[in-house]
Specification:
This protein is of the alpha+beta class. The protein is built from 6 helices and 4 strands. Bound molecules: protoporphyrin IX containing FE (HEM).
Length: about 130
Amino acid sequence: MSKQYTRSEVVNSNSKEKILIILHDKVYDVLSFLNEHPGGEEILLDHRGKDGSEDFDDVGHSKDAFDLMSKYQVGELIESERSNNAPKLSWTSGYTKDDKNKDQGISQSVLAIIVVVLIAIVYYVYL
Ligand code: HEM
């Protein structure tokens, strides 16, 4: 079983050897990840001791990020202090799938406009 933390334990962990962040009821030590984080070390330091779930979701982390995270997990919140909010869909499924759907939607509506314009031209020219 992984180590159980209370929220105040995470907030008050001033250890130089740890940078604890809560993300979706799990506790991560990102000290060794600071230099590698593509979003920069500053933002991780800003979230030290905090629950960064919402900001993390807002950024929209990819499936790769999600896979990478498990490497830095050091424990989880005790059951009574969990928020039990599932990560946003974009977080677990990644953006690529959504983007593809979006592109398809745009090209379909562009196609529809072209068809309407063509019909209008044919109508005015030949009728
Ligand atoms: C263990 C925790 C974390 C891991 C493993 C992680 C991993 C990553 C990865 C792999 C990326 C590159 C883009 C992607 O693949 O999604 C990224 C970007 C980013 N991350 Fe994190 N991250 C973590 C925590 C956080 C936290 C707590 C924040 C706070 C809001 C954050 C903010 C950002 C930002 C702002 C970017 C840059 C997005 C961009 O430039 O488009 N990350 N992160």
